[in-house]
Recover the amino acids of this structure.
């Protein structure tokens, strides 16, 4: 189980441009990934997820559906684990294989990506343009109203609305939406450069 759960989070952060957003981080297979991978794409979509968060795990099927539906529309997808205790191991690979993700699962133990993209809970999503602008940050949909209070079906598909707008060449109607989930674990005190 996750150590702490969060109520809807706004954190006082508004989505904002992230000029020259660059990163280089390894995935659970040990393969390096960076911002150059989404040049020529409509946007990069980062799903911040956690192995021990039941809300995050509960979204795995919807995450797969969204990635499957929109990958052919010019989007690139990543799952991001910002937990310093998760390592690239056989057990980690097996657990994420059970989620059925067929896109890279990045290990962000230093929480570099999470901090840059203003992520506070899992599951939470960030959509970044090829130019590095943070187009959207927040919930996938509104299925979870608050802790312990959820709908059987969402009434608003925030991420799908965002991706549809971007695919059509429009600005997303909302820059952020509050996410409900497990707080990210405490970041490590020291800093380490990625590759």
């Amino acid at each position: 189980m996750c150590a702490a759960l969060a109520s809807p989070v706004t954190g006082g952060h508004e989505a904002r441009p992230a000029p020259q957003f660059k990163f280089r981080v390894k995935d659970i297979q040990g393969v390096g990934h960076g911002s150059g991978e989404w040049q020529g794409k409509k946007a990069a979509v980062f799903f911040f997820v956690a192995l021990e968060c039941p809300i995050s795990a509960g979204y795995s099927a919807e995450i797969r559906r969204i990635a499957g539906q929109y990958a052919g529309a010019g989007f690139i997808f990543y799952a991001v684990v910002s937990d310093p205790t998760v390592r690239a191991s056989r057990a980690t690979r097996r657990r994420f294989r059970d989620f059925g993700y067929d896109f890279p699962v990045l290990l962000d133990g230093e929480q570099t990506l999470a901090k840059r993209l203003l992520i506070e809970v899992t599951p939470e999503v960030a959509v970044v343009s090829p130019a590095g602008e943070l187009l959207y940050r927040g919930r996938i949909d509104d299925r979870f109203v608050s802790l312990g209070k959820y709908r059987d079906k969402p009434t608003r598909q925030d991420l799908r609305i965002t991706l549809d707008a971007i695919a059509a060449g429009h600005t997303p109607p909302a820059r952020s939406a509050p996410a409900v989930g497990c707080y990210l674990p405490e970041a490590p005190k020291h800093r380490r450069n990625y590759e």
